[in-house]
Write a structure and sequence with these properties.
mainly beta, two-stranded antiparallel ribbon, 2 helices, disordered C terminus
């Protein structure tokens, strides 16, 4: 995937440069006790020059004829490449440690740790906490990957008395982001280049 590292992106988050931009697409939620449903999603990975990315996501259910339905999930947070991996986490040579905090409008706050490298992000919960009326989530994993220039993700969840299992997944296309000039090799590169 060819992309451009924004000139004002903090060097600390270069390993995440390939996700910077706005992504939109479709997915499905399917979990015990929740009726399977198709959804639309919009994810924005933005930056303000600080050593982190600003993350927002909105998932909207789709009606039977593809019309837009109710908002299913809204979450926001911060993603940063950590200075070192947590104790007990071993990284491969091409990976960088990752820390993520997310707050969901449902009343859930989640901290993740994981790794980013070669166009793939793997996350697992460090903790999940909810407000009194928030969802009963005990843990989760998320995987994001660059597949032929698209952002594919999968979310496994341990919640509502269920063991960790598939909860949702989606396939998203970049709809806005740093412009890739015609001479992209001179100023951009691939996700592998951003890892070096």
């Amino acid at each position: 995937m060819t992309f451009v590292i924004p000139s004002d992106l903090a060097p600390e988050v270069y390993p995440l440069a390939w996700v910077v931009g706005t992504w939109e697409g479709h997915g499905v939620v399917d979990y015990p006790g929740i009726e399977a449903a198709d959804f639309r999603q919009r994810i924005v990975f933005d930056h303000d020059g600080g050593p982190y990315l600003i993350y927002t996501s909105t998932i909207t259910l789709m009606g039977p004829d593809g019309e837009e339905g109710q908002v299913w999930s809204q979450e926001s947070g911060y993603w940063r490449v950590a200075p070192s991996a947590p104790e007990g986490v071993e990284l491969k040579d091409f990976q960088h440690p990752l820390e993520v905090v997310m707050a969901d409008a449902s009343g859930l706050l989640t901290a993740y740790f994981g790794a980013v490298g070669n166009g793939r992000i793997d996350l697992a919960t460090r903790f999940a906490a909810a407000t009194e009326s928030g969802p009963d989530v005990r843990g989760a994993t998320r995987m994001y990957g660059n597949v032929a220039g698209e952002l594919m993700w999968a979310w496994d969840l341990a919640a509502f008395g269920q063991e960790l299992q598939s909860y949702a997944s989606a396939r998203l296309t970049r709809v806005d982001g740093p412009a890739v000039p015609e001479d992209a090799d001179a100023v951009g590169g691939s996700d592998d280049d951003a890892e070096s």
